[in-house]
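Every protein is a chain of amino acids, and every chain bends into a shape of its own. The fold becomes a row of whole numbers, each drawn from a learned catalogue of backbone shapes. The protein below has been through that process, and both of its lines are reproduced in full.
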Amino acid sequence: MVVRRIPRVNELRPLIGVKLPAKGAALERCASVADLARLAKRRVPRAVFDYTDGAAGDESGLSRARSAFTDVEFNPRVLRDVSSVDTSTEILGVRASMPLIFGPTGFTRMMHHAGEPAVAAVAAREGLPYGLSTLGTTSIEDLAAAQPTLDRWFQLYLMTDRGYGKELVDRAWTAGYKTLILTVDTPVAGRRHRDVRNGLTIPPQLTLRTFADMAVHPRWWLNVLSTEPLTFATLTSTEGTVADLIGRVFDPAITIDDLEWLRGSWPGMLVVKGIQSASDARLVVDHGADAVLLSTHGGRQLERPPLPFNMLPQVRDELGAKTPVFIDGGVMSGADIVAALCRGADAVAIGRAYLYGLMAGGQAGVQKAVDLLRAEMETTMQLLGRTSIDQLGTDCLR
């Protein structure tokens, strides 16, 4: 016979899971970068999220890039001591805590008013390199002053005004940037349909749609309107859409001669970003590049581009083991980073992954993104039976 009784309050208390939400609780509950993306989508205007999340045309370039990672099948080994894992490596002569580069992104203060300094603070804390974009919203000098110990890289688009390009390069070197990234996949703007549909301009224009958006994203608009005006730090011709800006400022006539000119003007390390074939990788290395970054601009330029992940073996065979080869596009987890390293990459660059964190929670969101990637990478390595970066190779993949 079952004897029933009324439970005491102190017996019920441990079973009650309802708690008042604490500050940062939504960010803390994010278990993946994809979760950060979903949180970001709720916290910023649609045009801002779509600029970050979108790609060119039907966006198949981005979806295929992500599928290339998720289609990977690992080859794990067991009965190995994986109690301690070392994710550190060397990136262009500088020790990094992970084979991870904070890639350059434009309009960063549009995603969150803290902008590039918030991202750079996390990069410096984690011992990772950070690339400041020509289309950045923080100046070369201001970022250097904010993070003097950061491994600072500067990303350059060659503009029709070569003199101004040379001025930017000189300013970067004077401010202590040791690596220059030349982006070569943007002679013209890709056709990004989401931006066209949303009518995105920099800075955002106040329209009837904008005022409606203010009602559902008041915090974002308050931060934008109550902080320094949202403008480019290195460009003055900023009116109109992104495509208007690229068409007006960038030079579609860039050739290999321009790379040689830049090599003669820059005394530091030189990375060429936007390489999409083994033959072009060989071309730029023969003309002065220290490393290549296989990239399709996150699928935002050419529709139906080749996939950087798939290009890795051919480029590695062409360049050999000594030339650093980096990759970006479609990286959403630490397992993706491990897969790229196994495929032949020396390091992986991210953009969207940390921008999702920035939109979701500012600097704390960027930190959350890195924490997730690091934890996922460590777990993947342990389950593969590998404990250091030099143990990751093609034998880890089937």
Q: What stands out?
A: The longest strand covers residues 269-275. The chain has one domain: 30-396. The mean pLDDT is 91. DSSP finds 18 helices and ten strands in the chain.
